[in-house]
Amino acid sequence: MPRYDFDLFTIGAGSGGVAGSRRAGGYGARVAICEESRVGGTCVLRGCVPKKLLVYGAQFSDAFADAAGFGWTVPPPSFDWPSLIAAKDKELDRLEQIYRTMLKNSGVELIEAHAIVTDPHTVEVDGRSYTADKIMIASGGHPTVPDIPGIEHVISSNEALSLPELPRRIVIVGGGYIAVEFAGIFRGFGTEVVEIIRREDLLYGFDDDIRVAVAQEMRNRGIEILTRTQVARIQKCPHGYSVFTTLGQEISTDLVMYATGRKPNTRGLGLPQIGVELNREGAVVVDEWQRSTVPNVYAVGDVTDRLNLTPVAIAEARAIAETLYNDNPVKMDHNDVPTAVFSQPPIGAVGLTEAEARRSYGEIDVYSARFKPMKNTLSGRDERTLMKIIVDAASDRVVGCHMLGADAPEIIQGLAIAIKCGATKKQFDQTVGIHPSAAEEFVTMRDKVVRPTKLAAD
Fold first, then answer.
1. 93 and 190, same structural domain?
2. Which end of the chain has fewer surrounding CB within 10 Å, N or C?
3. pLDDT tens digits along 68-89
4. Annotated catalytic sites, by residue?
């Protein structure tokens, strides 16, 4: 008789939990996965997928406007928000069923209820106890909001994806990628957007030139960005809401959305009680093998609050399955992970920012190009693309690539391979570009950017 009911018990059926469970099951492990909500997690149901579908929808306003420059006569278009939301929901239902089928085909038992870990090898679910040799926490995260008067009136990105009707005006609080993406989405559909941020620039952590440029492009699209501003209170009014800032401003709006941060879903799982260490934000502390302070309890993805990206969670979970059930020890490499912001225009980035590279290497070379894309020469759209290459001067190795402009995520994905392989600027220069394309700029930039000397010490 087996000592435990399962070899692996996973808590959370999001992208990471499903990927790791499927792979473990494929290697012959006896696996259960527990989910108290819908199968698919944040990415499939409340994040990447539905958000990208709305981004696609919002981009059609540009396409209709640009068509005239290419000889098309387009009658005044109309848009129906409920139809888009219904189509999006239908697609999410389809994807959830695919996830369920994949788990079933991998021999993974799906348990749908809330799980509590009662000891290092026991999980209680809906009054029943299950034992497991290993436990993997993949419970994700959730949006958080500050404690200010009127905060009960706001929505998060979760609700923004399923609004019954499109607001005429919206205030979005936050300067991270979620706030920036939704500002572009709502503006694309014609909503008046005010974005409130407490810093000077959007997208803290991204390259500074990219941060400044994306704000400029957003303002050109009619998005009002209030910097160094914080909300004092929110008041419900007969025809919407009033947002009062600490600077004394009052902004009238139909809806207020907060995108000011997320926290790990660890509350109520029983983890501290069995000895699993959590940090100040409630994230599971793990080592390089994804192990918590309880050796047989692992954690992946947003619940560890490191690189909160779907592909990272998937890679971490698959590494666990390889290590434990395929005699193939694998550590997730968190260096040079590419990322994107599906703003309008979008951002793609991999490697170090200019500021990070200066701190790490001291002497660096920076190459930059800013230009109007060919498409915009006929459409008349006043939107420019920005590209940057960051090079370690001593080794000539390219340590960062950054782009703001159409197809940036698609282009940066390929460059991420080059950076992962340690490509040099000389090798970039020796690569023949595809013409005419925006991507060719990454292999034709030759002039170094000269910065003020004092910048190197910042």
1. no
2. N
3. 999 999 899 999 999 999 999 9
4. 435
